[in-house]
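Can't paste images in this forum, so I'm doing it all in text. The chain is below; anyone willing to post the predicted structure tokens underneath?
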Amino acid sequence: MNRQQGNPVFEEQTANGWQFTCVSDCRSSLFLHIYDKDQNEIRRIDMLPYHISGQVYSVSVAGVDMRDKLYRFEADECFVSDGYERGMYPFREWNTKEESPENLYFRTSVVNMEDDRYPAIPQQDVIAYLLHVRGFTKHASSKVKYPGTFSGITEKIKYLQGLGVNQLILMPAYEFDELDPKTGKLNYWGFTNNNRYFMPKAAYSYDNPEEEFADLVRKLHKKGMEAVMMFFFPKETNALMIAECLAYWHQAYHVDGFWLLGENIPAAFLMTHPLLTDAKLYFEQTEMIPDSEKIVNRNVSVTNTGFIKDIRRYLKSDADTLQSFAYQMRNYPKPFRALNYISSFNEFSLRDLVSYDFKHNDDNQEMNRDGTNNNFSWNCGEEGPSRKQAVMKLRRNQMCNAVAMLFLAQGTPMIVAGDEWGQTRLGNNNPYCQDNEISWLNWKSDRTGKAVFNFTKEMIAFRKEHTILHMREPLRLMDYRACSYPDLSYHGEQAWYPQFQENVRHIGMLLCGKYARTSEKKEDATLYLAFNMHWEDKTFGLPALPKGRTWKCVIDPMGQAQEEYKESFTIRGRSLVVLMG
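Text version of the structure:
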């Protein structure tokens, strides 16, 4: 017998008992089977008399406490399975074939979120951190009790809080078949067409996936951190099901938001859904988002693919990149925000960005034809690992430059797990099938990694300290408060005279603190961001400050700056400094 596909089954506790609903195109028979926890059948109910309309059948069952029971539907002598399932028994181990339909049972998912509250972090204050649930702690160096699980992440909350991030974005953590049913090839990431969207992935738990996932969310919230889930919906997915799925996770598990992947995502529908008005929504394409006054949810961001391209090109000193770099540093596509990142799961990691000119995806067994060829990377003089001190130093500086650009930009910053200490994937920019040390985080970092980690932590703290770096409204490049300074201004070798010619690779950006407040009574400091991605030293002209104030260096990854500056200063090639007035 083959299981029927496309027939939703779900249950709900009501005042009259447990309500079971099935959408089925059955022709001869439809039964609900209920079992005790030892899989002994205790009830068998004919569903055909309980026809509602169309293909919908629903029955209320009293006198049975389903919280410790199992159930399944049988339609035309075939067991029914679909993405609406809330729980399944027995659980399937990671990277193993699915059990036969005869051995599949569903169970109710009653999760107690206790007194949990959403942190409701304003989008301009978010510091996002993208991770793969299994890969985050699967490596032995993570030293967690339950590696590769939701509980493994829970054990690392203290580390994440210390780093300074306040939002976790989980790659697919719902139930998906990681093995392709036709080829048997592994899909490590979880972007598959065979999904059970209403269930935490069982293989990401050691005992009870529902409770372990809920525990992770509760403990993140207690530390003031949000949980966002990444969902992939194939183009044929029903829009109503997408909305029901997101609303379910938002209500039942208190998930704070969703990163939505797929061709036909109903953005307008989701943004007006009454149960999702306070959920954060991340969309892949700007054209998905309607510009309408009817949109209720303003907690929306667009993943900024332009940022990764423009920042990487400027970082490696390409010509004619200064204007696009300056734009990305201020980019804020009102009424929504931009989610900025310099690496992702399907791009070079931060260290590989400065270590490889070309992708090295041979382990994927696709003859290195998969993955993007447009990495905008530079190996700093040698392809792959190097022991040359000059190359290693340059790579460390370039990683710090990239981190600084990410956290000094106005858009919401997102870092990928492991980039904070320079994790390498050995040049693989598409490790979708790599369930091994290419994708797993190695928590042991070298000297370069430690330096990058300390700098990343410093930049996160610096961004949080200065409101002018993450304004609630877009910067206008105007002196609209009549304080003698625009909110943002550009400068070159002379103050107030920026140079945007094709061969210029250095620029100064002044952010006036009078347009932002760190508290109700205190204005933010004025910052001067100096970027020089040319290979030669460059001089910058400094705007005059009010009487009694001087420019002092506050960010200097290369250790080159003086303590104070007056009219101008010079910085080395491929470096940056931040001054405070």
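The longest helix spans residues 389-408. The chain has four domains: 9-107, 119-303, 305-434+450-465, 488-580.
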